[in-house]
Amino acid sequence: MDAQPKKLTIAGQRTCRCDPSHLNCLTPKEWIKCQLGVWQFSYEKRDIRDKQKHPATFPIALARRCIELFTHRGELVLDPFMGSGTTLLAARDVGRNAVGFDIHPDYVALAHERLNREPLPSDPQLAQTHQLALHDDARNIPLYLEPESVACIVTSPPYANLLNRARLNKSRRGQARKNDQYHRVEQYSQLPEDLGTLELGAYAQAMQEIFARLLPLLKRRAHCVVNVTDMWWENQRITIHMAVIEALRLAGYELRNIIIWDRTNIVNRVGIFGWPSNYITMGTTFEYLLDFWKPE
């Protein structure tokens, strides 16, 4: 981590010719496809599926849709919990500048590797953007960026302490449960500043503090999309998405939309659990995309 962060020199102005009042560069036909409240995506070859590299990644296509929906070409996208750098790759695909932060040096290195391996877009206008992966705590991001410079936040923060326990693979069938993930603790680290070590109350407080610091960086009515899921712990549903909604409201954001990420097309060999007396929906089949914005 940089002991003395300096303000970044990175572009963030529109390079399109859209009407100033428009939210994005989408055509009406493209816009209407995004109006459905349930989204489904497939993974590409470029996506990371190996949980040894990163235990929780979303598809490039997911980040790309959010970025195209809530920004214009040339604008600046922020991912405060960058992980493997998926948001940065998606931003490059569609001609947006982007900066991502993570406290884990291995993930920052992975993001750099992915960005360096990817060829630049063939369209010269899309290729004239920059994507930066930086090693630092999300709490320090205001030291790097100017107020009202960010057009959109797209991120998937740690899901509280969901990964900080031995994995039992209850959603898998039979012997498929005992794969290389069985009984593994997939938590990113045990660093005290890592949100993945916190129980729900402390996690919500940390999320409120971090996003309160990020709010001044957003342009007026800029959107902030947070990907989260809930979890089961000791036979209780832990409603992480509700905690995140309340945390960001307290931080000054306004909730605009809740979109369901339908993951049924990427769930393999579903096992049975809870039968015949305890009905539990499979948490691996859907997640939440919580869409906030900075109020006027």
TrEMBL record:
One of its GO terms (biological process) is DNA restriction-modification system. GO terms for molecular function: DNA binding; N-methyltransferase activity; site-specific DNA-methyltransferase (adenine-specific) activity; site-specific DNA-methyltransferase (cytosine-N4-specific) activity. GO terms for cellular component: cytoplasm. InterPro entries: DNA_methylase_N4/N6, MeTrfase_CN4_CS, RM_Methyltransferase, SAM-dependent_MTases_sf. The lineage of its organism: Bacteria, Bacillati, Chloroflexota, Ktedonobacteria, Thermogemmatisporales. The keyword Glycoprotein does not apply. It comes from the Bacteria. Belongs to the N(4)/N(6)-methyltransferase family. N(4) subfamily. Its EC number is 2.1.1.-. This is Methyltransferase. It comes from Thermogemmatispora argillosa. It catalyses: a 2'-deoxycytidine in DNA + S-adenosyl-L-methionine = an N(4)-methyl-2'-deoxycytidine in DNA + S-adenosyl-L-homocysteine + H(+).
